Each structure stands twice: as structure tokens, then as C-alpha cells.
Amino acid sequence: MNTFIFAANSVLPIIITIVLGYMLGQTGFFDGGFLKTANKTVFRVALPVYLFYNIYSVEGFGAVNWPLVLFAMLLILAIFVIALVCVCLYTKDNKKRGALLQCSFRSNFAIIGVTLAEAMGGVESVAAAAVISAFSIPIFNILAVACLTVFGDDTNKGIDIKKILKGIAKNPLIIGVLLGIITLLIRSKIPMKDGEYIFTIKNQLPFLYKAIKSVGSMASPLALLVLGGQFKFSAVKSLAKDIAFGTVWRLILTPLICIGGLILISKTGIGLVVSSVEMPAIIALYCSPVAVASAIMAEEMNSHGELARQLVVWTSLLSIFTMFFTIALFRHIGMI
After folding, report:
1. Is CATH 3.40.190.10 what the domain over 2-332 is classified as, yes or no?
2. CA distances for 315 relative to 12, 64, 249, 306, angstroms
3. Contact 316, 105 (CB under 8 A)
4. Which of 99, 73, 232 is nearest to 153 (CA)?
5. What pLDDT does residue 327 have?
6. Exposed e or buried b for every residue in 220-243, given b needs 16+ CB within 10 A?
């Protein structure tokens, strides 16, 4: 019962904020113009700043379990390839393909992953989650730009590598992540005194650090409110089959393949070890619902925005039960 309450407490704040946005949209408090502008604000300002803040907040890579990070990222790429084949066989609608493919590999790790890891494993698991986020967030966003660019319309023009690279280079989320990585690397090269860096944005430029944190902190609630404001229950019936397909991938197949794959690889004796401190971060990485940003990006990049919004809502709601089962299972076998 405690595990179910934990899973519910992790996801219900997301659901409640979406419901609030839906109510504000239905009562006319949010009009179409506001939602469109807010959507752009989240995508082009708040989320890039939030991702920069997340990356910059990583303390360092001194005690990183590099084999775990490597295989965790390779499994994300594997899911992308497997799901790409399945999605292309499932539907010929390119806009749906982009939204469904994004749902398969892109979890909400940036927003709730660290919180989930902390609830399961404490401060040590937070450190593992922060390091994993420094690698998973860039991969999630690069793959998302690639699939939404390729499947951005209903025509079949083939793969335009130049267009994909241009989309990646111009994507605000990618820019935020890269700036965070560059700043983190610069900080790591600065000499230390008494175990602390001589110069950091947080200590030497606290006004800038607080501004970055404030702008970034509005990304999640504003994105969820906009998502709720644009949500349409009338679309559920026509998209029910697609919602089921994406939800099964996000909440069942991806966790089963990735977590199961890591456990099997760790038993081969090639040097991969997944400790009880790191497992909460891995569960959060693969079992979280689809990223809120996936709906924002789908809308901005001419994909199937309505399907992407439905997938965020339904994977978030149903993840309460799938996370409960996963956490209970790994607690029972003593891995968390």
C-alpha cells in the first residue's frame, strides 16, 4: 500500500495540474491566443532554461558508473530503432508516427525523474539520476527532433539529413542542453580550493543563478497547464487505438526491454554493475510517463499535437499503476 501511495504522490501532481489547465480552458479563462503563446514560451524559453539548469546542477563525474551510463544510453537507442520499425508497420500516418515514436523512448525523466529517484533511494540515488540526466536529456531531445522532422507531415519525401541536422542545431531544447554541458565542462576545469570551485554561477553570480532557476521552474507547471487547456476528451474515441499503442510502449514494453536488458547484461560478467542506489534512477528513467515536452515539441514541429497530448495524459495517469508494480517488484527482490 505504501508503494502505491508513493507512486500516486509522484504522478498525481502532474494530473492535478493538467486537470486545472483543462478546467481553465473549458471555462474560457485560457483562450486560443494565450495557449498558443504560452506553448511557444515553454518550448523556446522556459524548457531550454530548465534543461540548462538541470545539466549545470550536476556536481561532477568523478564517481560515475560509466558502464551503466553507456549501456543505459545504448538501450535508449535500441528502443528507438525497435519502436521505429513497429510504428512504421503500425500506421502510415506520418504525423502519428512521430508522436508514437517519441512516446516509446522519451520519458519524463527531466521533470519527475530526479524526484522519483530521491523518493525511492534517497540522496545517493539523486546523484545517480543527475548524472544520467546529463546524458539522457541530450539523447532524448536529439532523437525527438530527428523523428519529428522525418515524420513532420503526411508526405513521404524520404529522409533529409540536412533538414534533420538543421532542426537539431536550431532546436531550443538542444541549445539549452548544449549550453549546460559547455558551462558544466568549463566549471569542471576551474581550479578548486578547499574542495570547492573558485568560481560558480551559484556562488559568484547568485542573482543570475536565481533568475535561471526561477525561469526554469515555471517550465513544468506552465507546460502542464497548457497541455490541459488544449486537451480534448472528444479526441479520445478517434485516437483510442493509437493511445493504447503508445501507452503500452511507454509503460510496458520500454521498461521491460530496457530494465530487463540491463539486468541480463550485468549477469554476463562484462563489468556492468547496477547497485541498489542506482536502480531507482534506472526505474525513473525507463518507467516515467512520456515527457511533457513531447507534446509541446509535437505541436511546434508540425506533428500530431493532439495525439501527443493524449499520450502525456494517459501515460501519466496509468503510470501510477505500472510504477507501483515495478517498485513493488524490485523492493521484493531487494534491488532497491
Report:
1. no
2. 12, 30, 10, 14
3. no
4. 99
5. 84
6. bbbbbbbbbbbbeeeeeeebeebb
Q: Tens of pLDDT along 228-258?
A: 888 888 888 899 999 999 999 999 999 999 9
pLDDT of the residue at 174: 84
Give the Å distances, CA to CA, from 191 to 54, 180, 333.
22, 19, 44
324 CB-near residues (< 8 Å, 6+ apart): 3, 4, 6, 7, 8
Largest CA distance in the chain: 62
**pLDDT per residue as tens digits for the range 94-140:** 999 999 999 999 998 877 777 777 777 777 787 788 788 888 988 99
Q: At what angle do helices 219-230 and 2-26 cross, to 10 degrees?
A: 60
Distance CA 114, CA 117 (A): 5
CA-CA distance, 222 to 41, in Å (whole number)? 9
Query: What's the predicted TM-score (pTM) here?
Result: 0.84
